[in-house]
């Protein structure tokens, strides 16, 4: 079994969406026999970010202050444990120059150990309409018309592709997370997924096999055919549980190992060797 896990969340400061403290997550990881872990709470910042969660920030300084406190908290707690603990963030990437400039400054300000690239939003081209997919799911009264959804989903794939090209990230999270919400399941979207595969291969960008989908929709991220294609192109893969509580740390790791074995997938990624 993979003895490291670099995608997990905490409930730090009552702000983030995990259910346990860093201390609880670290202790449980150690008990489970993991040798190295990383805690990666959401970094969701954009000047036009709507007020959809206390985890989302439109104010640069407010966001930075919190991220620095989280890093301090985790680094301090980890001193009490043997297991190697890194502090990263699961970053919501946005493609605009405005966001990139701010993120580049933020990286210098907060100095986390690593960054995971993610896309959890539907947005328009100009990034003044930003809609979190989970927020949309929880608020079914919000309706988006069909033509707009098609535009937003194309931008979703563009955003994933641009996040790969950016070079900001150690690995890219759940490439097809949109399928959790019933989007892009059909083969009419396969060309966009193939573009993602080509870009990952071209940039030799590691990506994750995210096991959390097995519990949520009976299927991992990304699709098995994508994993198969990415293996043929020798793109490095890391298994992630995306744990939001102690009970899901290393969840479905055995199943993930079996899937990789089935495809003879040997190019495994670890951000800290
Ligand atoms: Zn995510
Ligand atoms: Zn996550």
Give a concise summary.
The protein is α/β, with parallel strands linked by helices and 273 residues long.
Describe it:
The chain has 273 residues and is an alpha/beta fold. The chain has a single domain (4-262), classed as Alpha-Beta Barrel (TIM Barrel). Helix content is 39%, strand content 16%. It is built from nine helices and ten strands. Strands 1, 2, 3, 4, 5 and 8 form a six-stranded parallel beta sheet that branches. The chain has a two-stranded antiparallel sheet with strand order 6-7. Helix 3 links the parallel strand 4 (84-92) and strand 5. Helix 5 runs parallel beside helix 6 (190-202). The longest helix is centred in the middle third of the chain and has 21 residues, at 146-166. The radius of gyration is 18 Å and the shape is globular. The two termini are 16 Å apart. The model has no long low-confidence stretch (mean pLDDT 97). The structure holds zinc ion (2 copies). The site of one zinc ion has 4 residues, from loops.
Task: List the secondary-structure elements in sequence, H or E.
Answer: EHEEHEHEEEHHEHEHHEH
DSSP helix count? 9
Can you count the beta strands? Answer: 10
What is the CA-based Rg, rounded?
Answer: 18 Å
CATH homologous superfamily descriptor: Metal-dependent hydrolases
CATH architecture call: Alpha-Beta Barrel
Q: Identify the overall geometry.
A: globular
What is the CATH T-level topology? TIM Barrel
The helical percent reads 25-40%
Percent of sequence in beta strands = 15-25%
Euclidean distance between termini CA atoms: 16 Å
Hetero groups: zinc ion
What's the CATH first level? Alpha Beta
The biggest beta sheet is recorded as:
6 strands, parallel
Domains (count): 1
Class computed from helices, strands and strand pairing: alpha/beta
Please mark out the parts with pLDDT under 50 across 5 or more consecutive residues, or reply none: none
**Mean pLDDT across every amino acid position:** 97
